Protein: Dihydroorotate dehydrogenase (quinone)
Organism: Flavobacterium faecale
Amino acid sequence: MYKLLLRPLLFCFDPEKVHYFTFSLVRFTSKIPGFSALYRSLYLVDDKRLETEVFGLKFKNPVGLAAGFDKDAKLYKELSNFGFGFIEIGTLTPKGQDGNPKTRLFRLKEDQAIINRMGFNNGGVLEAVERLKSNNGVLIGGNIGKNKLTPNEEATLDYEICFDALYAHVDYFVVNVSSPNTPNLRALQDKEPLTQLLQTLQNKNIAKPKQKPILLKIAPDLTDDQLLDIIDIVNATKIAGVIATNTTISREGLQSENKTEMGGLSGKPLTKRSTEVIRFLSQKSNKSFPIIGVGGIHTAEDALEKLDAGASLVQLYTGFIYEGPALVKAINKKILARK
């Protein structure tokens, strides 16, 4: 029904406005008695065989919602009814910020892709914390970043502020230094500053009564040598794992009219590259740390390819927009079929 009726209608309107409209629609319908149960009956696959334990956490199933969809932790409870095993909120920054000027979100229908240059628009970490205080069992990842106006030399403090604020309210952390939409952010992926940033957060983590897994989200545009550096950094800092991958700045092979827009590209054109990065990291590290696979998952087969390449969990974003919540169910059903 989503692909036949709802998606064609939604795709007639501005993508960012549609995003907020669907948020409101899901929130409204979820308040109607019986609707949350209806969503769960339609999309949730409740089977113990899907339970997956990764970096000390037990996931009800290995399919999560990637960061960027519920930036401010406004809808994580309602979204969990669509069958996700975990929800990643953010990217959150210490101070609220508007992000980049609109228009900043573009559909590439012919390529089944999206280009965004949102720029970490969010209400600030403390607003999200207030919403997370009422969480009653949704497994949450907290994706953290730096404010646009914070110079890279002071970026570590921004990540520390977010870590401290979210520590009691999320199950794992994701350090985002790979978005192409905050000026100079990707420079933090270089070996020296990245090692320093992750070690600082890990030191704070070790000092806590209970450690929370810290993951690093990386770009798909890294070279093999840079990916080898990532393996070294993960092993040296002993963080929990890697999320591969964020959006790409590549525009290779695109057909759509909006292909020249600036920003990060997600969706089907990223399928192959993100899987290549997962496989490279898994093989070259001798599977020494877990990987969450994300990027271009539009079918159950896409998800299985990432799991086979070395991912322990997968996340959806653009595929969820193009294919609808039935994709979550289809992936979990396909995983069960292989059990």
